[in-house]
Amino acid sequence: MSDVLLECHDIVKIFPGVRALDGVGLHLTAGSVHALLGENGAGKSTLIKVLTGVHTPHSGRLTWCGEEVQLRSPLEATRTGIGVVHQERNLIPGFSVAENITLQSPPSRRGLINRAAMTAPALTCLGELGLDIDPDRPVRELSVAQQQLVEIAKALYTESRVLLLDEPTASLSPQEAERLFEVIRRLKARGTCVVFVSHKLEEVFAVCDTVTVLRDGTSVLESAPLADHTQDDVVSLMVGRAHSATEMRPRKRDTAAAPVLSFDGVSTAAGHRDISLDVRPGEIVGLYGLVGAGRSELVKAMLGLDRVTGGEIRVHGEPVRIASPRQALHSFGIGYLTENRKEEGVFLEQPIVRNITVTVWKRLAKALGFVSSREEQEVSHDLVARLGIRISGLGQNAGELSGGNQQKVSLAKWLAADTRLLIVDEPTVGVDVRTKHAFHELLWELARDGLPILLISSDLAEMITLADRVVVMADHRIRGAVDNDRDYARMSGRIIRIIHDRAVSAVRPEGVQA
C-alpha cells in the first residue's frame, strides 16, 4: 500500500445557518488518483478550501505524513506540499508562462527578481508534463487546455505532493481531456496524489483508483477502492437514492409553424460562412460540435457582440440587426443563458433578488424610476419556488450559491422577463447529476409550453436527451443536421460521422446548408 500523505479526521466547518462539513473523513496516498464526488452543495468546495488553507475547520484534525498540521493560509498549504488547480484559472494573462509558473517563489539575485533564471525551472516543469510550450510566451496566447496544464506546472514548481484538480475537463475537448489524463497518469507514476473532482463519471472511472463521496456535508463513502463500485452505485450514494431517468412528459411541436429565429446564409467576422438554420415555437434545436467549432461565437455575433458580415437574421420573419444583448431582450424578447455564469451570468456580490429582477426593473419601475422592493420579492419568490433554487433567503448573495443554483438564478432572470426565445449555452457544465437532470426537465417543460430554445452543448448525451434536431458545427461551418430519434447509439454515430466528414447519408439537410 502506498504511503498516506494527507488525512482528514472528522472535519467540521460551519457557516451561518449551514453546517457545510459534518465529520468528513478522507485519506490520500502517494501515487494514486482519488475521486472526490458529490452534488453541488455537498461540501466538495468547502473541503477543498479546508485542505488548501482558505478555511479553518471548527473541529477535527488534518495530518500530513502522520503529523498533525494546521493550514492557516493557501501559502502554508503550498509550502506543505498541497497544490490546487481551480476550475476558474488563476493565471495572469499578461505574464509569460515562466513568470506564471514561478510566481509564488520567483528566482532572485541580490533581492531582485531574476527573470532570466525563470526559464530553466519552467522548462523542467513543462518537460515533466511532456509540454512543448515556449516559456516566454504570454499566457493569454495559450489555449484553455494549455493554460490548464500551465496551472499544473505551477504545482510541480512548488513541489506539490497532493494536487487537487477541480473540474479540470469542464472547458476541454475530448482530445484535450485525454492529454490531461496522460499528464495525470504521469504524475501518479512519479508519486503524486491527484485528487480529481468531476461530475463526469465516465472520466472518473477512467482515471481514478479510490473515491470519496460527500452528501449534505458528510462522507457517505470514504477513500474506498473505485473498482468495488459501479457508476450506478456512486450516483445512488451521491443523491441518496437509486437514480433513474425520469420520464419527461410527452411534447409535440408544430414543424410547419413559422420560425421564431432564422439564419439565412449568415457570415460573421469570427469566420462563419453561409450559416442557415431555423428555430420554431416549442422546438429545442441543438448546436453541437467540439470546442472551437464556433457555436457560441455565432450566437454572440447575432446578439451584437461581434460583426455579422453577410446574410440575414430574422426574428418572427422580420430581418433584424441586433446591436446588444440588452436590445435583444427588450426589443425582440431574446434571452441568453451564458456558459460563463460566474463572470457573465450572475452578479456574485449582489443578492439573489437583484440578480433575478435586473431584467425587469424597467417594467417594475414606478414614478421617478423607483422599483418596489415588494414587487421584486414577489417576482423572485415565485421563480425561486418554480426552479427549485436552494437558498437561505432572497437577500443571500449569488456568489454564496453552488454552481447549479447560480445557473438557475441566471435562468430565472430571463424567465422573469418573459423571453420569447431562449438561447442556452452549455447549461450544465460543472453541475451534479441530480441538478443536471432537474435542469433538463425544466428546459423540456419550457419548450412544452411553447418557448423556442437554441441549445449549445458539448455534452452529447445532453444533446440527445433534449434536442429535437441536432445541427452539427465544425470549423465555423454547419456540416449537417439530424432529426433526433433519441436512440443514443444511433444518434451519436450519425453525429460523429458528420463531424469527421464521413458517411452523411443519415443527415436530413432541410433548412441547413452543409
UniProtKB/TrEMBL annotation:
Domain named ABC transporter: residues: 6-241, 250-500
PROSITE patterns named in the record: ABC_TRANSPORTER_1, ABC_TRANSPORTER_2
Assigned keywords, A-Z: ATP-binding, Cell membrane, Membrane, Nucleotide-binding, Repeat, Translocase, Transport
Any one annotated GO CC term: plasma membrane
CDD domains cross-referenced by the UniProt entry: ABC_Carb_Monos_I (cd03216), ABC_Carb_Monos_II (cd03215)
Entry GO MF terms: ATP binding; ATP hydrolysis activity
Membrane-topology descriptor: Peripheral membrane protein
Main subcellular location: membrane
Subcellular location, record wording: Cell membrane
Xref: PANTHER family: CARBOHYDRATE TRANSPORT ATP-BINDING PROTEIN MG119-RELATED, GALACTOFURANOSE TRANSPORTER ATP-BINDING PROTEIN YTFR
Record protein name field: ABC transporter permease
Organism in which the protein naturally occurs: Streptomyces tubercidicus
